[in-house]
Design a protein that fits this description.
Rossmann fold; 14 strands
Length: about 425
């Protein structure tokens, strides 16, 4: 189970981790699994105290950075991610110590073709810029720039700390102007650039390129849709790096790293962090989609078997089937043998009257069913006959298809001792 935290920070170099420790103070705990990590449990954020975890990859460059991010996301579940460190400046308009928040990232050395030309060893072909996968860092930087009081306070803190760094190192000149914050494009590659010609060639890819670093493309490829901010302090001009041991170079690197760390902490206090996103298990959406399709197919098969639904269709009432027909030797009618007499709008419904008896057995059964009980009068028998619903019977072997006769046998019962009935009508059972 991954531990929930608020911010996961990657610092590619030890001096960048040291700058974050300088700003946040000593971490509450340290770890070495899976990578060197430092954990702060109560960092002041916009929504209250939060948990910040910082780690370093095994090495610089795109692939080590991407591998480290994937490993850390298996142990931690952050609300946002920050890539923090130093970078080289590609424009003279930005001074050393300024801070840049990435808008787009150009992976400039992902080339498809290298050609020889006279004035430069390699000819660069403009790559497609990689868009930052969320506006989290950009929008927070814009809010920070709009808050004049907070921004000026950040500038003063950075300038005071920068002077102290240079004085302690005995380096000069000491920074005299406060750092600035830019929102611009980054160039990222796999090589440390220490050439003025290469710097100019990379800067020519786009006039919006301002910083040059080595990890952004790999980090962004491993984050998915996790909100991210890429923030760097400008420490050098991508040339003359053979003098890294000089006090001035060391001081500018420390100054730029701490400026970036202070700006990151300020950005995290601008507004509440994005809501935590519940992780989806691999294939869950595909399984849900497959289950929905299976349910729809099953419902379609059921509907096809039942046929079209008719709201005005009604089955014959069970009371219309005589319960003693089986005892009289007659076959019980089935649904197939009963014609559909459903009323429609076009034709009137036929009258439900029994068919005339056509065989000797039917006539005998009809005579028994219509004979009045002993001790009843003729009026009682007629009243009982009128109150009894008509009975439908089918002749043995007769076809269930065809019109039904509407003639009704009329009987009159006479209460004689001989038991002989007198009948009138078109169909007489005698």
């Amino acid at each position: 189970m991954r531990e929930r935290i608020d911010v996961l920070v990657m610092t590619p170099l030890p001096e960048e981790m040291a700058a974050l420790v300088q700003v946040l103070g000593p971490p509450d705990r340290k770890g070495a699994e899976p990578l060197a990590t430092s954990v702060w449990s109560r960092v002041p954020l916009a929504g209250g105290p939060g948990v910040v975890v910082a780690f370093m990859p095994a090495d610089m460059d795109q692939l080590p950075a991407a591998t480290a991010v994937r490993q850390m996301l298996m142990y931690w579940q952050p609300r946002c991610f920050a890539l923090l460190g130093i970078a080289a400046s590609l424009r003279d308009t930005a001074a050393l110590g300024d801070v840049v928040v990435a808008k787009y990232v150009w992976h400039y050395d992902a080339r498809r073709k290298v050609a020889q030309r006279s004035n430069c060893v390699n000819e660069l072909y403009a790559p497609i810029p990689i868009a930052i996968n969320s506006n989290f860092g950009i929008s927070y930087a814009q809010h920070f720039l709009a808050d004049k009081d907070a921004f000026v306070q950040w500038q003063n803190e950075c300038l005071d700390r920068g002077r102290a760094i240079f004085e302690d190192a005995g380096a000069s000149p000491v920074p005299s102007s406060a750092p600035r914050l830019f929102i611009d494009d980054f160039a990222t590659g796999s090589a440390v650039v220490d050439s003025q010609a290469e710097r100019e060639a990379i800067a020519s890819l786009s006039r919006k390129l301002l910083a040059l670093e080595m990890e952004s493309a790999g980090v962004l490829s491993s984050l998915g849709d996790l909100p991210v901010v890429v923030i760097r302090g400008l420490s050098d001009a991508a040339s003359g790096k053979g003098k890294d041991d000089e006090p001035v170079q060391v001081s500018f690197r420390q100054y730029a790293a701490e400026n970036a760390a202070r700006s990151l902490v300020r950005l995290l206090r601008v507004a509440p962090l994005p809501a935590r996103r519940s992780p989806e298990r691999p294939g869950r959406q595909a399984l849900l989609l497959a289950g929905g399709v299976a349910v729809l197919v099953s419902l379609s098969m059921v509907l096809l078997r039942q046929g079209p639904f008719r709201a005005d269709h009604s089955s014959p009432a069970p009371s219309a089937i005589p319960t003693d027909a089986g005892s009289a030797g007659l076959p019980l009618p089935t649904l197939a043998s009963i014609p559909d007499t459903t009323p429609s709008r076009e034709t009137p419904a036929p009258s439900r009257q029994p068919s005339p008896p056509s065989s000797p057995s039917e006539r005998a059964t009809h005579r028994d069913l219509t004979r009045p009980l002993a001790g009843t009068t003729k009026g009682d028998a007629l009243s009982k006959e009128a109150a009894t619903p008509p009975v439908r019977s089918a002749a043995p072997g007769a076809s269930s298809v065809g019109p039904t006769h509407s003639a009704t046998p009329r009987t009159s019962a006479v209460g004689s001792t001989s038991g002989v009935d007198s009948c009138t009508g078109d169909y007489c059972p005698h």
